[in-house]
Amino acid sequence: MSKLWFSADEYMPSLIRGSVIEQDRLDAQAAAIVQMIGDVPCLAPTHYEWHVAKAVDVGCGTGVATVQIANIFPAAKVYGLDLSPVSQAVQAMAPANVAWVEGNVLDVDVHSLADGVMSGEIFKPVDLDYIFGRMLFLGINDWTRYFSTAFSSLKPGAIIEHQDLDWKFYRVGTNECLSDQWEWHQAVLAGAEQAGLSTRAGSDAAVTMKAAGLKILSEQAFEFSFVPSSKTPKSQAMGKYVQAKLLPQYPELLRKMLGARGITGADLERLTKECLRDISSEEGIHQKYTVTIARKP
Question: Tens digit of pLDDT per residue, the chain (297 long)?
Fold first, then answer.
């Protein structure tokens, strides 16, 4: 039913998905996010009290957040769900209350009585206590379906936490958008929208959650820095991560995204140079990372 617009294999061909190099990159990103949002992997457990017997980490990636959630809720059964398998090394060190599942949340049919681990176990109606999702903006192309599935699967009083990124770039410590006039960025946004992806997966989440019947408890925005700045100390690790590990992947990322719109050759080379210049143009330049927490009434 759903499909990633492009996978790590497609836009990072130099990396093998699940390889040590790629896992190191994703783990570094996860660690930077933890520092950025307050030295915790998820905000709901630090702000609210509720009983958690069953939880799922949607789009778990390398599994680092799944393990952290399992340690926060040691009495709960915690599922790590992703399209690709988690490495054997992570599986071996995970606590006993973790179960790893390969699958797509958008394939769940909450109106059927289907058996199987996805619809019949993880997303069984009115059975989940906590749904966690982080950085799903490249993997979800139907947010209405995603949050409706979450609503149907949560128990009354249960919580969903959504952490995600918007695509625009801003000046440090402000809401002053820098990217509206960037030609390459407009082409990327157009390509994303053409593919059915939201370019405001973080800041628009609350609206879609409300429409699904969920009650918003909190919404916090953080600066996902591309260049470190002393003005945002909590985001410095993110800026260092982007410069060291993410930026080198951008030329291939742009080749995939802009190439899908017919931009190749000299035009692609020019826009790639402009992109690399623009996203490192000043300290603290950032995208907005929003953490939205909601409860099922």
Answer: 333 333 333 333 333 344 677 788 889 999 999 999 999 999 999 999 999 999 999 999 999 999 999 999 999 999 999 999 999 999 999 999 999 999 999 999 877 766 678 888 999 999 999 999 999 998 899 999 999 999 999 999 999 999 999 999 999 999 999 999 999 999 999 988 888 899 999 999 999 999 999 999 999 999 999 999 999 999 999 999 999 999 998 998 899 889 989 999 999 999 999 999 999 999 999 999 999 999 999
pTM (predicted TM-score):
0.93
* Cβ-based neighbours of 283, under 8 Å, separated by 6 or more: 172, 227, 228, 229, 230, 231
CB 64 within 8 A of CB 25: no
Distance, CA of 125 to CA of 112 (rounded, Å):
10
C-alpha dist (Å) from residue 75 to 52, 70, 98, 128: 8, 8, 10, 14
Q: DSSP alpha helices (H): ranges in 63-182?
A: 64-72, 88-93, 143-153
Query: How far is the C-alpha of 283 from the C-alpha of 173, rounded, in Å?
Result: 11
